[in-house]
Structures are given as structure tokens and as C-alpha cells.
Amino acid sequence: MLLSLISQVDEALAVVFHALGLPPHLAHAEPSARPALGDVQCHAALAAARVLGRPPRAIADDIAAALRGDARFAAVEVAGPGFVNIRFADTFLGTAAAATLADPRLGVADEGQGALVVLDFGGPNVAKPLHVGHLRSLVLGESLRRILGALGWRTHGDAHLGDWGLQMGMLSAAIRLRDPAMPYFTGAGPYPTNAPVTLDELERLYPEAAAACRDDPARMAGARADTAALQAGDPGLLALWHALRQLSVDAQVRDFALLGVHFDALDGESDVRDAIAPLVDDLRARGIARASEGALVVDVALPGDTSEVPPLLLVKADGAALYATTDLVTLQARARMPGLAKVVYVVDQRQALHFEQVFRAARRAGIADGVDLVHAGFGTVNGKDGKPFKTRQGGVARLRDLLDEAVERAAERVEASARVAVGERPALARSIGMAAVKFADLSGDRVSGYVFDAERLVAFEGKTGPYLQYAVVRLRSLLARAAGMAVGPPHATLPAERELVLACLGFGAKVSEAGHLLQPGVLAAWAHDIAQRFSTFYDRCEVLRETDETCRSRRLGICTLTLAVLERAVALLGIDVPARM
Ligand code: ARG
């Protein structure tokens, strides 16, 4: 419910509580769980009764009696042990609805006030294809970026490419083995700028090289030596690294575009490489890093810990920097961005300990002081067997496999319904398939995993992305058919109208809640609820065929409000809506 509506009730309650000598901090109302009883409810009489030693019913009666004179409320009733149920006057609700519709922000508060939030999401690794985990990060991260942006934050989306680790050494060592005479390895520049392999070869090469390193210590030693040489600045290896990175990033950028994901920066671990040694030296000099078995570590355990938080490994015995090191150095660089207030890492929940270590080490080192550091973790995408989703061949599922499967299922549906022209079907199937995957990714608590069941996700009914798309398409077409008819303010009087309008007015509060909790699922559930309420309203109330013109224009106003908030919500989820479906 629109925050301002609730806060107006709270203000009325505050006046009444003051007059009645009730504890002022209890003067609050909340949306009613049972609309038949009222629009909002105040439970304060129960708590006040404990403080004052009076029966709650008597207190509730006093509150209700005092509120009854207020023209904003059509009914104030006491129920149960002492609940005060309040129903808004239709005119009051209508005014609030008209105000929301006229507000360009649709009731979403400017909470960020221009403060900067960095969203670290996507996190693809160079030379490896995007997999389902990256998909979740991309979808959740993009939605969070949009939600925080709507709440008035200045957002900076950063893909934080994994481009400086052992996989790069594994690749160059494998390429060297195939052709040691390549200029990259002979130290004789100039080096070709094009990659010596195609994208397909590269994507095959990495798993092969990784497997070989796992099985053969000599291969692993070669990969480590190349990684160390690369990190030490070997010009040939740097040139090869650069070419492979470019090839891989170009492909990933195409995937981002397909998913409608926007990044402000495609920075990677490698971008902070020159700052690693200075930070390490500084931490050592200040006694924050200590030597341990040839390596350098930062102790991050705290007295109250209930489970062990091991030291953060800063530099390995062979001198190589690690994942945590680049995260610390990257944070140090981000802290220099003007106005930075928050960094949100949208990364697999299984990395929770890693982020705890990084955040604690940052605190100890005084890196990013005063900046709110949050790990917004997420669970795994599972197959119908409940185990992490695999391809039909049993391999690690790539993002493209998953999207292809959803798009294929969507295409079957589109064929079956045959409502759109043949030429439009492939694009429609893609849009529906994407929406299906995104909605599934965003629904529910992000920390829990979900079952990827393409068949179910592309359904037009139930809690699905296509159901939301369909509601928007239906509303758009309805309003298009109303061209030339009068559209009045969204005044609701019947229960199906009021319930829809009241829920629409909750948009701002839901966006805030989703932003605070970093849970797009809150908004996804709300949008689904709106779509359902609209469907009920449309079943019960005539709109275009309504003969009473005043009533029709009110209802068209309600449809306009519904479309405005639903369209905005769907956009914040990062879901596109096709023209027809
Ligand atoms: N590249 C990492 C992975 O694939 C994710 C990076 C997440 N972001 C970060 N700042 N550590 O697991």
C-alpha cells in the first residue's frame, strides 16, 4: 500500500494516541491481511493494554471512536481481542490513486539521494563459457541495479571479470604445448593482436587444459609457471592473454546484450594488478598481514565467531596473488569513487565465507571505511532431480543451453496457440523464454535454489514470467481499444476494484522492501499478485462494454494505473514485454 496512505493513518493515530494518553510509539497501522474487514489494521491496543493494565477491547473502542469522525475513513470497527480495522473512504482512496498515477516515480521514494552503489555481478571468467551460476548473477544483479536506480541511487554495474587467475596460465601453457614456436613464447615480438584460436576452440581448450592439469602434475607445474610469469609481466604472455581475453569478452558481451543486462564497466581482476604489490607491502608493513608457512595471510577471526573463519590467504608461497587479494585491491580502487556508500556482490552463496574474509580484512586494513559491504548470495539452479542443473549430455550447463531450452519450449507453446503471425514467432518465443528464465531466477528468496523445469516456466498460467508478460499485453491492448473513450481518475468502489487499486498503491513500498532486502523476489511476487488481481477485476467488471460512461471512465483509469505500476515493476525485473502474444 502506498506509503503515504499508511503514514497518513499513522499521523491520525498519533493524534488520537496523544489525546487518549496511549504510548506514542505504538501509533502504527499496517495493510490488512483480510480485506473483507478493512484496508488497514492497527494492533496497538493489545500492546498498550499490557502497558496500561486496561482491557485491550476497551482501548480499541476508544481508538475507534476517536477515529470515526475522520472523513478519510469510511468505517472503523473493532474486531477480535482488540484490532482496529479501518476502511478508507472511496474519495480518499481515489485521491491517493490519482496522485500516484500523476507522480512520475509512481510513489517510489528517493532513498538513495544520489549516493553511489557499486553492483558487482555477472563475474564471468575469461576463456570459460558463462554457466548457469553466472546467469543467476546476471539476472539478479541487473534487477537489483534497476531497483536501486529507481530508489534514487546512482548505480555502477561492474562485471568483475575473472581474468587474472590460474586459468590464464593453464590456457597459455596448453597453447604453448601445441605450438612452442609461436611468437608469444619465443620472446620475439611483435605479437599478433588476433587470438591464435577461435572462440569454439578456446571454449574447448579450457576444459581440456583444466582436466590435464588436474591429472598431470607436470602440466599443472607448467600452468603455474605461466601464471606467475604472466603476473610478473612477461610481454609475450601478456600479449597472448590480451588476445584471449578480448575474444572471450566479446562473446560474453553478446550474451549480456541478449539478456538485456547493462554494465557500466567491464573491469576485471587484472585491472588492479599494479596495485596488488603496494597493498601487500602496506599490509605487511602495518602488521596486518603475517607470514605463515611461506605465504602471507590476514587473520580475520573474531572473538564472537560461532564457526571458524580461517585467515585470508593474501599471497601464496610461490608469490601468486589470489582471488581474495584481487577482491581486496578492487575494493580499495572502488573506495576512491566519489560518493561510494555501498558495494553489493551478487555472487553464489557458496562464496559467503570468501566475502566474509574479504570484508573483515578490509575493515582491519581500513579499506572502504564507512562503506556498506554486502554479499547478496544466491542458491543453485537445480534440475528436476534436485541436483545442480546439467546439460542433456550431463556436462556443466552453459547459460546458452539453458536459454535455448527455455526458448525451444516457448516456441512449442507459441506454435500451439498460433495467435501471432508465423514471421513473428521466433522473436516471441525468445522473449517468452527469456522472461520465463528470468522470472524463475528472480522469484522467491534468492538464497534458495530453484528447479529449472522449462516446461513449467514457459507456461502462461501460474507464477511465471509469461503470465506477467501476458497481463501487460492484455492491459495495453485493452487501453488501445479504448482510444477515444474518456479515461477518468482511478476511482474504485467495488471490492474487486478496491483490492486492485490498493495493491497498486503498494508499488513504492514493495520497491523499497526489495531494495532494502536486495530481494527482487519481493517485487516479482507483488507483480504476480497485481496480475492476478487485475484478472479477477477484469472477470468481474465490464470495462469496454460498460454502458455507464462514468463507471467506464473510472475503470479505464484503474486499468491505466494498473498498467503503469505493472509495466514499471516488470521493467525493474528486467523482463521485456512483446507487442503481442
Ligand atoms: N569470477 C567469479 C566466479 O566465477 C565470480 C566473481 C564475483 N565477484 C567478485 N568480486 N569476487 O566464481
Observed structural traits:
single chain, 581 residues, alpha/beta, Gyrase A, domain 2, 4-stranded parallel beta sheet, 9% strand
For the largest beta sheet, what order do the strands appear in spatially? 1-2-4-3
Shape descriptor reads globular
Our Rg estimate from Cα atoms comes to 29 Å
Helix content: 40-55%
* Small molecules (ligands, ions, cofactors) in the structure: arginine
> N- to C-terminal separation?
30 Å
Structural class: alpha/beta
Mean pLDDT comes to 93
User: What is the number of beta strands?
Assistant: 13
Description:
With 581 residues, this protein is of the alpha/beta class. Among the domains are: 3-88, Gyrase A, domain 2 (2-Layer Sandwich); 166-259, no CATH class. The chain contains 21 helices and 13 strands. The strands form four sheets. It has a four-stranded antiparallel β-sheet. Strands 6-5-10-11 form a four-stranded parallel β-sheet, with helices on both faces. It has a three-stranded antiparallel β-sheet with strand order 7-8-9. α5 links the parallel β5 (116-120) and β6. The chain is globular and about 90 Å long. Arginine binds at residues 120, 123, 125, 160, 162, 327, 345, 347.
Secondary structure layout plus pairing:
Elements: H1 3-20, E1 30-31, E2 40-42, H2 44-52, H3 56-67, E3 73-79, E4 83-88, H4 90-102, E5 116-120, H5 132-150, E6 154-158, H6 166-178, H7 183-186, H8 199-215, H9 217-231, H10 235-259, H11 273-285, E7 289-292, E8 295-298, E9 312-315, H12 323-334, E10 340-345, H13 352-365, E11 372-375, E12 381-382, H14 399-417, H15 425-442, E13 450-451, H16 454-457, H17 465-481, H18 495-504, H19 507-517, H20 520-540, H21 549-572
Parallel strand pairs: 5-6, 5-10, 10-11, 12-13
Antiparallel strand pairs: 1-2, 2-4, 3-4, 7-8, 8-9
Helix pairs in contact: 1-3, 2-3, 5-19, 6-8, 6-9, 8-9, 9-10, 12-13, 14-15, 17-20, 17-21, 18-20, 18-21, 19-20, 20-21
The site of arginine (ARG) has 8 residues, from loops.
